Amino acid sequence: MRVGVLAVQGAFVEHIRVLKRLGVDVFEIRQLKDLDQRIDGLVLPGGESTTQSRLLRDLGLFLPLKKRIQEGLPVLATCAGTILLSEKIDDDPTTHFQTLPVTVKRNYYGRQTGSFQKKISFENQILDLIFIRAPLITATHPDVNVLIRLNEGVVAVEYRHQIALNFHPELSHQTYFHERFLKLIQARLSQDNSHHLNAH
Ligand code: GLN
């Protein structure tokens, strides 16, 4: 299994570290030719969504990545990555990949709110969520599976092959969401295999 981590800006190093610790073959996506290799999953890290989007367009990566995601490439997006996937940004005409039918509000907690942590219980465990100038998901299409909802709104969703989080699991010691992403990739790979076998 090979996972590409978008590495044009933001907190990509930490994702690479977590995935390597989980035994995954990881590579950085910095330019178009990095997409020539096999890719089974994509990580869109946190950072600054407008900068990332501009760099993606400048580097010619925007459309090829959008196409891969539309075709079903499993994605784990965190924070700015979630903004890139979202169909709509609240009070903002800017659009990016638009593959995830949700609306996000950027910098929901205020531009000055650096970071904060919140412990929540989720599927029989306590998760430590780390937010950094985080967005909030303010609306979701009925087909979107809401994983975590706080008082103010939604902060984790899954939709088909896309997992989008408003916090930074790569900065906590917990690997739950990375493992969930790897399971999604596994499921897709075995599905592809059975299609392949059925075709013969
Ligand atoms: N505030 C950033 C943005 O709007 C996201 C912050 C983050 O990725 N930690 O793009």
The SS-based structural class is alpha/beta
Please tell me the overall pLDDT: 95
Q: What global shape is seen? A: globular
Strand fraction equals 25-35%
How far do the termini sit from each other? 24 Å
- C-alpha Rg, in Å? 16 Å
* Ligand set: glutamine
- Number of helical segments? 5
What is the helix content? 25-40%
Question: In what order do the strands lie side by side in the largest sheet?
Answer: 2-1-3-4-12-11-10
How many DSSP-defined strands? 12
Q: Runs with pLDDT <50, length 5+? A: none
Q: Describe the biggest sheet?
A: 7 strands, mixed
Descriptive key words:
single chain, 200 residues, alpha/beta, 7-stranded mixed beta sheet, 3-stranded mixed beta sheet, 5 helices, 12 strands, binds glutamine
Give an account of the 3D structure.
The protein has 200 residues and is an alpha/beta fold. Helix content is 29%, strand content 32%. It contains five helices and twelve strands. Strands 2-1-3-4-12-11-10 form a seven-stranded mixed sheet. It has a three-stranded mixed sheet with strand order 5-6-9. A two-stranded antiparallel sheet has the order 7-8. A hairpin with a 2-residue loop joins strand 7 and strand 8 (125-132). The longest helix is centred in the C-terminal third of the chain and has 23 residues, at 176-198. The two termini are 24 Å apart. The model has no long low-confidence stretch (mean pLDDT 95). The site of glutamine has 11 residues, from helix 4. Glutamine binds next to helix 4.
